[in-house]
Design a protein that fits this description.
nucleic acid binding, alpha/beta, Rossmann fold, RNA helicase activity, seven-stranded parallel beta sheet
Length: about 450
């Protein structure tokens, strides 16, 4: 399996797990935490003579469930340990396969909370003799809103069990969950490791509508072997992929809009070197075992500093070198400062190419983008410069700031505008009647007639 010596989390966690103690462990992706709990649990299962499902592993995503299932198959090959991954987004045949495994009693169940609850609601899931419960990436599960699902599942498990909680971060909500479900736990707390020294980290301060042209410009100069581009919006994925293909790169996108089969096929194609570049939403930011990337691009600044470390940590693994490029718009500059505090290092902010014009000035105190609002929702590939017509407007549409926006040209007044319109005879023209918008608003809100699709909520970023 390629293991010569244990990683720090394995060295500290494995003895505690073998002693059957509850455990709360803070360790990030890439530290060997999965093996830290799988190896001792497989040893316990192979020597325990269990005739029922003994272990439940709860995870936030389908991809992580599938990956852990594959690792169980590898680690437990000579131990005759069975496992099944339970996750949604499958075909009907997969549901039946999952049902058979749950009713016959696989040794280890790896499941996403929502899908497991769906099976449990059918009445055939028997976990009353469970011995071990593992929550992997617990912080991610809480971020995704699985708290209630977790409590429902855990309430149906035996109270006498071993519970292991692994989390990349340790916020208060994780501590509160641990108090509810763990009994006198031991603790392993590994500090968030800094990005490897071999990573060349580059930040570009850019408006949103400069990002795609900048990406294209940089790709012409880079030697890309394997790259993941992370974006916070599903709507950006297909547009970036189209641009990459026009440039001659082999590229594929992965987002939650795809079926599970499509996502797995794209991911496997990337691992098999069929594609140079994968464009993905946050689906791939944690839990996917992809090593030795030459480049990572954050098309959008990650929400959390820890997520930045997870993402850029996918390059320069195994003492190799790599490059991490991050685009930062005017609204996300304060996040850069959080990253710098976490990794205790100031990161370089590189200038844009000369023909791109200026980007936003670096101001880490700005949280909402100030007056730099690009109205009209420019697409990332529009290639246009920030509009000079953007204004910081208060009530009544007037610019309330005395000095205007120092980073934007002022908008000239319309010389043809007249305060009071007149008719051909020079007399004051009658004012147009105010339109009654009641019916229009009723249709817009779906209260009557109209296209029902128009009132559907917009797809939110993933």
């Amino acid at each position: 399996m390629g293991y010569n010596k244990p990683t720090p989390v394995q060295e500290q966690a494995i003895p505690l797990i073998l002693e059957q103690k509850d455990l709360i462990a803070c360790a990030q992706t890439g530290t060997g935490k999965t093996a830290a709990y799988l190896l001792p649990l497989i040893d316990r299962i192979s020597n325990g003579g269990y005739e029922h499902t003994s272990t439940l592993i709860l995870v936030p995503t389908r991809e992580l469930a599938k990956q852990i299932d594959e690792q169980v198959e590898g680690f437990g090959y000579f131990a005759s340990v069975s496992s099944i991954a339970i996750y949604g987004g499958n075909k009907g045949d997969d549901w039946e396969q999952q049902k058979r495994a749950l009713t016959t009693g696989a040794d280890i169940i790896i499941a996403t909370p929502g899908r497991l609850l769906s099976h449990m609601a059918m009445g055939y899931v028997k976990l009353d003799q469970l011995n071990h419960l593992v929550l992997d990436e617990a912080d991610k599960m809480l971020d995704m809103g699985f708290m209630d699902d977790l409590i429902k599942i855990i309430s149906q498990l035996p109270k006498e069990r071993q519970t292991l909680l692994f989390s990349a971060t340790m916020p208060r909500k994780i501590r509160d969950l641990a108090q509810q479900i763990l009994q006198s736990p031991s603790e392993v707390n590994l500090a968030i490791s800094k990005p490897a020294e071999g990573i060349d980290q580059r930040f570009y301060l850019t408006y949103d509508n400069q990002k795609l042209p900048l990406l294209e410009h940089l790709l012409r100069e880079l030697d890309v072997q394997s790259m993941i581009i992370f974006t916070s919006r599903k709507s950006n994925v297909s547009q970036i992929v189209r641009s990459l293909k026009k440039m001659g790169f082999t590229a594929e996108g992965i987002s939650s809009d795809m079926t599970q089969d499509e996502r797995e096929k794209a991911l496997q194609g990337f691992k098999n070197k069929q594609y140079q570049i994968v464009v993905a939403t946050d689906i791939l930011s944690r839990g996917i075992d992809i090593d030795s990337l030459s480049h990572v691009v954050n098309f959008d600044m990650p929400q959390d500093a820890e997520d930045y470390v997870h993402r850029v940590g996918r390059t320069a693994r195994a003492a190799s070198t790599g490059m991490a490029i991050t685009f930062v718009n005017e609204k996300d500059m304060y996040r850069v400062q959080k990253v710098e505090r976490l990794i205790e290092r100031e990161l370089p902010k590189l200038p844009l190419p000369e023909d791109f014009g200026p980007g936003p000035a670096y101001d880490p105190t700005r949280r909402d983008g100030g007056s730099h609002r690009q109205r009209g929702g420019n697409k990332p590939g529009s290639g246009s410069r920030p509009s000079s017509g953007d204004r910081s407007r208060g009530r009544g549409g007037r610019n309330r700031s005395k000095g205007g926006d120092p980073d934007r040209p002022k908008v000239a007044a319309n010389p043809t505008a007249q305060a009071n319109p007149v008719n051909a005879e020079g007399q004051p023209a009658p004012r147009p009647k105010k339109r009654n918008n009641r019916n229009r608003n009723r249709k817009r809100n779906g209260d009557g007639g109209g296209n029902p699709a128009a009132s559907a909520p917009a797809t939110s970023p993933e």
